[in-house]
TrEMBL record:
Protein name: Ras-GEF domain-containing protein
Transmembrane segments: none
InterPro entries tied to this protein: Ras-like_GEF, Ras-like_Gua-exchang_fac_N, Ras_G-nucl-exch_fac_CS, Ras_GEF_dom_sf, RASGEF_cat_dom, RASGEF_cat_dom_sf
Gene Ontology MF, one: guanyl-nucleotide exchange factor activity
Annotated Ras-GEF domain residues: 636-868
Keyword Transit peptide among UniProt keywords: no
Taxonomic lineage: Eukaryota, Metazoa, Ecdysozoa, Nematoda, Chromadorea
Cellular component GO terms, alphabetical: plasma membrane
Amino acid sequence: MSKEIDISIRYLENVLSTNNSTLILSSTAALLEAVSKNCNTTDVELKRSLISLLRIIDKKCFLNQEVDVNQIKFSLQEVGKLSVKCPKSSQKAAPDVKKKPNAEFRDMEPIPNPDEENIDNLLNQLNLKKVPSFAPAFPDIKDDSDDENGVTTKQKEEERAEQHGQKVCEEEVVKLPDGREIRMKKTKTVNVKQTSKHVTISTKSANMPEVSRTFMNARRGFDEDEEEENTNFGSSNLRSDPFERFRSMLKDKDEKTEAVEGESAEPGTPGSSSKSKTIERTSEVSQKVSEKKEKDGRLLAEHEASKLDKSNLFAKQVDTYQGTSLIDRKGEGSYEESTLVRNALPRDSQVTTPPRMHVVEYMKMFGDDKKNNENEYLKGTTISSYVRLNSNLTTHEEQFKKKIQFEFSTAGTSSTTIDLDNLSDLLNQTDFNCLRPPNKFLEEDTPRIVELPKAIDWQREPTSVPPEKDLLLEHDAVDYVIFREKEGKVLEVRGGPKDALIVYATQSTHSSLLYQEAFLITFRTFISALELVNKLIKRYLYMSLANDSQSESIARHTFSVIVRIIDEVTQYELDFDLITSVTSFVYRLIHDGNFTYSRILRTRLLDRIKDSFDIQTVLGTNLCKPKKPHDLFDFKSADIACQLTYIDSQLYHRIESAELLWWSQEQNEKKSKNLVNFTEQFNNLSFWVRTLIITQSTQKERERHMMKFVKIMKHLREMCNFNSYLAILSAIMSTPLARLEWGKNIKDALKEHTTVMDTSQSYKNYRALLQTAKPPCVPYIGIILQDLTFVHAGNPDTIPTDRCNGAKNMINFLKRWNQFAILDSIRKLKKWNYDIKKNDIIVQYFNGFKDCVDEERTWQLSHQIKPSNRKPKTQS
């Protein structure tokens, strides 16, 4: 038994006495990893004992069922005994045996296709940053002198310096049967330097046209270095071709060679080899623009701005071969970029309304009904605002430092950036025109036409009804999907049967990352997570039994989608049925010898189960109650705004996209627990602010508290925390406070804030404020829920039958595109987080915002301060 397995077993035995489910599950995961690394995973008895152990532990920890601890200890002993009998070092290469078509399980892992996922394909998907030309906006300085005969000179200088470097290192190590190692290493380094300078001088005098002259100076340097290194370890004679002897040994099947460990190797057994490729890229682009304006030698204005863009990329890929067969591939890396802009004035960001074309189209579709036209116009405004928000966030991504980490392997997925530039084009067509109906239909989509048999046919034996086609077993579902076409060109998915959309999201060809993201975010609107996982498991098992490379690729894509769903499954969805389905699939993967997939899936499931949240960790503190209660004015307005933002940010990042979708459809508090916590925080803060203001005994104190909250609002707006900002604003604008008399200074201070809550044109002012905000940002969730509800109520779930040749139950994916446009923009805001530390003293003063009076008491206090002018009714 290896030391790693021995330690894992003993640790798990000790953890069992604690009865801590989290520790037991974590220890089991460590044992599973140790066995997969150190044992022969093709041994049937070992796999059975592991599955038996996992079943018992899962019943105890995942499903909370009563289990005898002695059963777990007995299974542990069995795993320990079998791990001694089948160490990995004794594993020999299995002979090439053809599988039977009806084989129930696979004994070997599928050999990965080297063209599927590799370092070059991944780098092509990363969409590495290209630095555009820097064009800052300088204010136009006008000459205020009365002299019209002078000479005005304007000089503009643009400098750009680029420095790019790339280092590619490829190394191949071959272990020969005689114990020697042959290592070949090739390193190529390229450095490029380029500088350019443009100077434009414009001169203008009275009654003379403007004369411009341009000067340019550019330099370019290129340096390339290539180095090769060949090493033959274990031999004094280095041949010109280090692989010549190795090839001759493979041809001579009768030759026997003694291995390094003293064991005799089988004749002609090919050695193992590994190939690694490392890429390092560095880029630095410095740009400087200056502008100077003079008149008769007198300086009128001078401006200067600079921009520095840096990026660093590191990527590594390692391939392992047995002979000429690729048996494993792993890769990892990171990409980091940063931008620094100094002394540049930002361009004005104007928020434009949607094109008038939308209104004209809606009038043609729905007639001249004014109400419908207004609703459809607001619909266009709503979706367009999120598209612009998406574009704005993309701009801010280039203005801040960001880092992308990625990894890929024959058993995993690759994480890359997703191009959402075509999202606005995708949402332009809002009706069902230009749809290309599916080329094929399922039996459930079109009614069967059954003809009555003729008289001469009554004696005929009844023909068996052919089984319905199962789309989940198809490689490609393009023929069953509805697309939008323009001039004969397919643009994007608009609908199709449920199973066809699932297949299209997991197939290895014709699909897109954008569609996969939209599918994974919105699938809960037409299928549950449990049903989808079960369908994907069925698809994976079928494809993994095939022997062709395309099926194996589809199986890997399908498994990646399963892992992604488990990564984002909500606590509400983690019920008995889903956990049972996933754990049963893990047992099947172990039975098939696929320990890598089983470890990945089980670890992700464990992470989601452990991801519990207690709101008191945010709103509560461990401090003792102070001797003297704190007052609102004991803290700076900026510090209070920071702590409100800390609380909102913590709660906002807990909200799942599924919760927003569920709430827009059914307002179920059990399904949307994190969303309820966030909205309750908004309401509690609003009541708390009203209470602190209206419970003051004098007008002076009420106005003093009012001005304090106005200052806090100003800081919240600067921090782009629109949740607390609007919570305080709604408290100040509430009727019990708004009806009271306030001084002119209060009214003037509130003018710039009250327009934000204007409800005209679907909160146009707030949307404009959100679109121009710099992340990090906490949006107001109420309008998001309103928009999602509007999209849900205003769009059918299925496409009308007359638009798809009579086919029924065709999911309307345009509705999901609209939902995706809203949810993805909000999800992208979560990429940034505030760098704020919790201040326990201020949070303790908040006291969870519990110290507030109810609505009825608020009105009573309001009428005590300013009695109503209503006259009591006289009895006749």
